[in-house]
Design goal:
- This protein is an alpha+beta fold and 299 residues long.
- The chain is 33% helix and 31% strand.
- The protein is built from ten helices and 13 strands.
- The protein has a six-stranded antiparallel beta sheet.
- Helix 1 crosses helix 3.
- The longest helix is centred in the N-terminal third of the chain and has 18 residues.
- The chain is elongated, with a radius of gyration of 26 Å.
- About 4% of the residues have low confidence.
Length: 299
Amino acid sequence: MAMADAKFSDVEPPLGGRMDKNIRLETERLIIREWRESDVGHYLTLSKDVGYSVFSLPGQFLVKDETEALERIKQRQSQFDQRGLGKFLIFHKSTEEFIGTCGMEPYKLDGQDEVELGYRLLLKQWGKGYATEAAGAVLQYGLSQLKLPRVIAFAILQNPQSLKILEKLRFRFLKIFEHAGLPHKLYEITATDLAKEQHPEKTLEHTRYAIILDKVPNKETSRETIQRHIEHLRKLEQEGRLVLCGPFTDHASGMVVVKAKNKDEAIAIAKADPFVAEGVRTQEVRTWLLACADNNYLG
């Protein structure tokens, strides 16, 4: 599932300076915006909602009154002013109904400064796909507008719906780690991942497939098989699919690098090689993404 298409307005890219306080993200169904002092009522609503706080530390969002709610809002405004980060409010576009919050906040992981994606919805808004839609828009904001190199996210093991959302958004699982004294699944997504999804043709342009051909022990290779292997390579060259090929000098194997539409096509090319088809070589296909300006692998 692709990230939700989002419209950005009044957003400044730099992460270090003061941000315009009129950020507004729009998706097909949602409006996502920054906190305002007039949102005291919305804060009081989320502070009392069971669904919003069910996976949080007890009392994390509770406030005594409107004055304390306003102080919490000012804290969130300050964080946004400084870094463009924070948990923003989500509203239904057509009804203006308050749904919950979604955004990004600083997080210290293994001594390193990271940016964490998070989302919380009021109980009655669960199960409607709003969290996935909002999180996709916020990710685009973070990775493309703020130029963040990566965003992390995590969820407690007992929250399978949140884990499914991260997987739908193409987050990669990293490890199990402890947060707030409980085991959580940790995920990441990078700016390169977003570029691959938004511009698959560029990813394909810079993708090659390395076919490793290992010699099968006690199997002799006949001259006829070698000749058919050479003819196979010449055909790939004529078709414009052969990039390079040759044996390793320090191992009884070789490599053929090809262009293909996908890995399945590369595997089919490998299996069609007479070395493999006649059982004198085994094949292993590896996907190779060339470093270039588009993916910024060299920084």
